[in-house]
Give the backbone structure.
Amino acid sequence: MLKMIISLMFIISVNAYSQNLNNIKIRNIEDKKTSVYVNEGIFHHRAKKQKTTLKKIRQNFTAKRGYERIVFDFATQEIPNIYGHIDSDGHKITFDMMYTEVKSGINAFGKKEFVKSVDFFPVSKDTVSVEIVLSKKVKTEVFRLPSKLVFDFMAL
């Protein structure tokens, strides 16, 4: 009986602090820039199973364009399987890259307007979680180009 009460309390506490993802649209990562920015949601790209390496990250902000861009460059033409989430509070984006190795010493660089940090967390031998922490609330566009995953951030 005590185990059941503790389990129930745990489930209630998890539900109280979790985000309801039932009403969030799941978006495919487009293969071109569409200028459709969102401030929450789930995104994904399904590719054939192939190993790749994240070679570098490029970052740029130009006030004239009005957005900050982060580009993840991969060794293969096709980007890996990606599953991610744009947090509704506007301060964090997390995503997993399957069958991907991260080259050591990768950093974003340049003048940062919205991006506070980009952190990598190995989940398994061939899966890496990435967390982009943002310094301001933003809306985001995610798209892909040959061998690139692109994030554009614009102020709300």
Observations:
- The radius of gyration is 17 Å.
